[in-house]
């Protein structure tokens, strides 16, 4: 059967995604109460499940991880990510712009997206749905589950990549004129994990194997209501 114009308009592997990963010693501080001595392991596991899902998505040509921590650098490179150091060392948005610069050198024909490393329930098919919707706008973003922050920000080829993560980044991305993507069937793309309650919500959706293994080590109140 012939493909429709709309289907042909969305090339496979059209995106390079940049995933920022803080030095683990400073990561996931809002999980400290619940995760205790497993906080760093949880941050690493969540990033691993996020990157593995992104690499399994057929719309994704490459994943660029920006990190200065050798442990996630090694583990995420082993999954197939390209790792670049956080040379700007000036916070999240400069790290993302740096990674996107490398992405555009390596894959100039792709759009570039910034994907949160905090999406342990991420499903490749749901990421594909979000990226296909993102193809329809110069800049687009997916708000987090609370609709306050952002989990994915995208810029099509040739469009300046100017992420505005941090705090109320949904409002900041809207103010840039980026298109908000709130389509059905992308819950796993929106389910970021910052707090114990977020982790419970992600576990209810179903998390990847790395996060499931660490969650099994956490005290009951963290993983159950
Ligand atoms: N490479 C890099 N990644 C960062 C930086 N700041 C934040 N990130 C990453 O961006 C995402 C969102 O970061 P935050 O919400 O600020 O930090 P967090 O570690 O998730 O959580 P908290 O410590 O509880 O604030 C996480 O995946 C972080 O690892 C940075 O300066 N450089
Ligand atoms: C930095 C952000 O996320 P977080 O909720 O992880 O702080 C953001 O959404 O812009």
UniProtKB/TrEMBL annotation:
One of its GO terms (biological process) is F420-0 metabolic process. The keyword Lipid biosynthesis does not apply. Keywords: GTP-binding, Nucleotide-binding, Nucleotidyltransferase, Transferase. Signal peptide: none annotated. It catalyses: phosphoenolpyruvate + GTP + H(+) = enolpyruvoyl-2-diphospho-5'-guanosine + diphosphate. Phosphoenolpyruvate binds at residues 150, 166, 169. The keyword GTP-binding applies. Pathway: Cofactor biosynthesis; coenzyme F420 biosynthesis. Residues 51-148 form the MobA-like NTP transferase domain. It comes from the Bacteria. This is Phosphoenolpyruvate guanylyltransferase. It comes from Actinomadura logoneensis. The gene is cofC.
